[in-house]
Design a protein that fits this description.
By secondary structure, this protein is α/β, with parallel strands linked by helices. The chain has 2 domains: 5-234 and 447-466, Glycogen Phosphorylase B (Rossmann fold), CATH 3.40.50; 254-441, Rossmann fold (3-Layer(aba) Sandwich). It contains 16 helices and 18 strands. The structure holds alpha-D-glucopyranose (GLC). Alpha-D-glucopyranose (GLC) is lined by residues 19-21, 24, 155-156, 200, 233, 365-369.
Length: 468
């Protein structure tokens, strides 16, 4: 039987996109919809998106959160979307003031309002399962006397929505779940209240119950261990597919990888002035935030000439990190090219296709999508041994017959440089390189299997909630 799911997220491709949350939410929702799960997406109304067959629902909410209404309709290929509309929620960027990169000062209030809206909708629609994603909607569980069966997905523990203890006075149900030191922690509240918890990769599920990976919440997560499961994300293979990708001059698959990649590489070298025959192209497509190990990327710059490598980076984010990569490009003009002023989707595709190696030195990485996108294009990722990177990339030196990339032995700069060197060495041996690339391309990175596992977790949440 197909369960009715109310799916709350602060981002969803292409309606509102900041990072991986948008991609993951978008991919999962579409896959569930394709598997006939009746799923309703609820998102904040940031920009007044146009819905078809729109109808408006007034929501009953506490005075501080109102007046609030829900706009319900369809958009793009999504059959049922609800946008929570309340003056003050809409902004040109979901989280930050675009000119400074600083968070909006009233984000606590904005996302508490969103959570109140999600709770009011859950009361109204009585879904079989309420699926919350990250901290933005997590407080909904404090506004529901008897929540429906609930699943919380942790896309990252890096943001918990920590806010002033005053908020605890406004949370009517089980406020103690949200109490954390001298403040209110929405994500923790949901960790303590949800029936089931999903981490976005199996390895992340094991990391977050330990002090090093739990970002302060490991004890609570450990207590919930029996209800915690890791399911790796998928990627949207209708978009990330070199066989059909319109941003490539020549489409290719695992069978004609050599021709396809040569062409993509040639185009990228011409675009960024690399030497076609001698240089190895190291690609990066990343948000420039602390988590992504930007200092490891800039740390490589002095070695690039000796490595005969060229680094091509597309990324935007925190201003000091943007400055640091721009400085690297200014200091090493022949070895480094960076594009930081825009997120250029077609360029991202060209970098995934045209690079020899894809660098992803994350300090922590709950799942990570870019490494899978790189592999889908036959580009070997070089990664740190953290989170979902470990679940998705198999080291080609340690595992000769199954390797798909290069995994650093240690999560530090020396380990990463070593992995880059190993990658470079292999890349220069055509026959071995091709095998590794082909293997990575042949893996099914789609959402189909992960979405099926979500359906199983929904069933388990329903069972658990009946024993509450
Ligand atoms: C967050 C995580 C990333 C994950 C994404 C989608 O952005 O940092 O690792 O892939 O969420 O779940």
């Amino acid at each position: 039987m197909n369960r009715r799911v109310l799916f709350a997220t602060a981002e969803l491709t292409p309606l509102a996109r900041v990072g991986g949350l948008a991609e993951a939410a978008g991919g999962l929702v579409r896959s569930l919809q394709a598997q006939s799960v009746p799923i309703t997406v609820v998102m904040p109304d940031y920009t007044g998106l146009e819905l078809t067959e729109e109808r408006s629902i007034d929501l009953e909410v506490p005075a501080w959160a109102g007046p609030m209404r829900a706009r319900r309709g369809a958009i793009n290929d999504l059959a049922d979307v609800i946008l929570i509309d309340r003056p003050g929620i809409a902004r040109p960027h979901p989280y930050v003031e675009p000119s400074t990169g600083n968070g909006w000062p009233d984000n606590d209030w904005r996302f508490m309002c969103f959570s109140v809206g999600v709770a009011a909708l859950a009361e109204l629609l009585k879904p079989d399962v309420l699926h919350l994603n990250d901290w933005h909607s997590a407080a909904a569980l404090g506004f529901l006397a008897t929540p429906p069966p609930t699943v919380l997905t942790i896309h990252t523990l890096g943001y918990q929505g920590m806010c002033d203890a005053e908020w605890l006075n406004r949370i009517p149900h089980r406020p103690w779940h949200f109490a954390w030191y001298d403040g209110c922690n929405p994500l923790l509240g949901a960790i303590r209240s949800a029936d089931k918890i999903i981490a976005v990769s199996p390895n992340y599920a094991t990391e977050i119950i330990e002090p090093e990976g739990g970002m302060g919440l490991h004890d609570d997560l450990k207590r919930r261990q029996d209800d915690l499961v890791g399911i790796r994300n998928g990627i949207d293979t209708s978009i990330w597919n070199p066989l059909t990708d319109p941003s490539l001059e020549l489409n290719y698959g695992p069978g004609d990888i050599e021709v396809g990649k040569r062409q993509a590489r040639q185009a990228l070298c011409a675009e960024f002035g690399a030497e076609l025959e001698n240089d190895v192209i190291l690609g990066v497509v990343s948000r420039l935030v602390d988590q992504k190990g930007v200092d490891f990327m800039t740390g490589l710059a002095p070695f690039l000439a000796g490595m005969k490598a060229k680094l091509i980076l597309l990324g935007s984010g925190q201003s000091e990190l943007v400055e640091s990569v721009e400085e690297m490009a200014a200091n090493h003009p022949d070895r480094v090219s960076v594009v930081t002023d825009r997120y250029d989707e077609p360029l991202a595709h060209r970098i995934f296709a045209g690079s020899d190696l894809f660098l992803m030195p994350s300090r922590f990485e709950p799942c990570g999508l870019a490494q899978m996108q790189a592999m889908a294009y036959g580009t070997s990722p070089v990664v740190t041994p953290v989170g979902g990177l470990v679940d998705t990339v198999t080291d080609a030196d340690k595992h000769r017959s199954t390797g798909t990339g290069f995994v650093a032995e240690t999560n530090d700069f020396a380990g990463f440089v070593d992995a880059v060197h190993r990658g470079l060495r292999t890349t220069r041996v055509a026959a071995r390189r091709r095998l590794i690339q082909q293997r990575a391309m042949e893996i099914d990175w789609s959402w189909e299997a992960p979405a099926k596992r979500h359906i199983e977790v929904y069933e388990k949440a329903i069972q658990s909630s009946s024993k509450r």
